[in-house]
Amino acid sequence: MKTTHAKMKKPLLFLIKTSLGIIFIFPLIVGISFSLHTEQELGSLPLHLFTPKPTIENYIKVFIDVPIFNYLRNTLITCLVAILSQIVIASLAAYSFVFFKFRLKKFFWAIILSTMIIPGEVVVITNYVTIQNLHLVNTYAGLFLTSLISGTSIFMMRQYYMQLPKDFKEAAILDGCGDVQFLIKIAIPLSVPTISALAIYQFVHIYNAYFWPLLVTNKDIWRTIQVGISYLVTGDVEEYGKILGAAMIAMFPTVLAFIFGQDYIIKGMVSGGIKG
Amino acid sequence: MVWSKRKQERELLIRPKANTLLPYVFIAPAIFLFGMFTIYPFIRTFFLSFTLTNKYGNPTKFVGLKMWKRILGQKEFWNTLLVTLKVAGITLLGTFSLSLFFALLSTTPASGGKIYQTMYALPMAIASSPAAAIFVFIFRQKNGLLNSLIGTNIAWLQNVDYAIWVVCFVTIWMHVGSSFIFLLVGFRNVPDELLESSILDGANVWQRIWHILIPIASPQIFFVLFLNINSSFKSFAQIKLLTGGGPVNSTMTLIYSIYKNAMINGRFETACIQSIFLFLLIFSITRIQFSLEKKVVYYQ
Asked: What's this model's pTM, rounded to 2 decimal places?
């Protein structure tokens, strides 16, 4: 009797926990489900969560009416440049802090740490003024310049290099390998898992950015996906099915990245934890 | 002879080289970018707060503390601070209790556990724009899902009593995921033997949570508490998209007010003064965090 009881308990617990999860992501289900309704169904009460005749007409309208590929292209170019830059610049800086001894090391490390206590939101307005004075509003440079480096990336790479056995470098240098060669041929290839973690973490971060791209773009063709969608939401458009469809397209890449890359993202969060 | 020469060579080579150019070359890009987009604008924010600016945010006249006096004398400014703290308090309570609940549910690894864990964490990957699109649909007055479900006709987003709660609700929904992950990391740190022996000693679920899980995960719990205060200070998009700071400024937080002053009213000096306050808020919270940490947190 007791064994059947114990046997029943596990699936039951799983069922309860999963149901709670479904309740929690209910807004997501709402978004997906109602994006498959027709505008007539959305405009007449009462609303039914599941429509008997799901349709993709809203999605077709998004692709026709909304310059969504333009938005996605702007966003992906920004992400790509920013992520590549963060990988290269953070690797170089972290390598320097771990493997070199130089006079101003402590001073530079203090600078890096001090930038971690200044949140981006505090300097966002003055950065906007800088970008405007450089005439970079509505340019790719304007979109990515403030994301080319982050304290989190330097921390992640530094943590990785500190774990690297010192013998590696000894051996490499005895074999006549210089620092630049060691970095390119050994340290960076070995750090691919950390670099992937950094890339996925920053991808979700930069793809989802809203405040900064909102400030530095004022023409529709330069908007990123988040800013483009937000103008649909605050606009006077009566076609809410289309808005939901566009929102679902916008969240698809990061939701996918999260589901398949969550271990990487968690790694990024834990090592960049101090900054939040 | 050969050996000793080799050893000498080895020592020369392994010892980190001092005073070469290479370390500086490696660090230069990072320092340049931080200087340009973090340190310089930070200093400039203070400078601009003592000036009058034109509509492009460039200073036209040095006025000393005049703008500071004017802003600190305004009732709206203090109202903004109050709303900011209120939003922080509500989202902190909501996010912390919900993520604590989810983390406790997931502490014991189970087959299939990844399914519900992913669900608890998933909203953190959803950006504020699509989230706002969904929640506007749920909370809007005309043809809104909530009104349709419970048979009311309330303008949730335009009502002084409800708007702040909706903003907090959406913020909580988006922030639970990351808090959940940090707390789960903390609870999973608890050694299995400790829990097993406590079960043998007859400790019930609550005793195990209160006397074992929570003390051992105290660094993460502590971190999550402050993380949420911090991130609620920085929540911008949901306010811009759901309420626009209204109705009658009931959701006008500091960060949204900064945006509005600079980008809509063209009052950059006001935005700069408010940015300094935002910095001071976050900075003092972080200070309190570090000084309390030593007293409250139990490190293994």
From this structure: 0.88
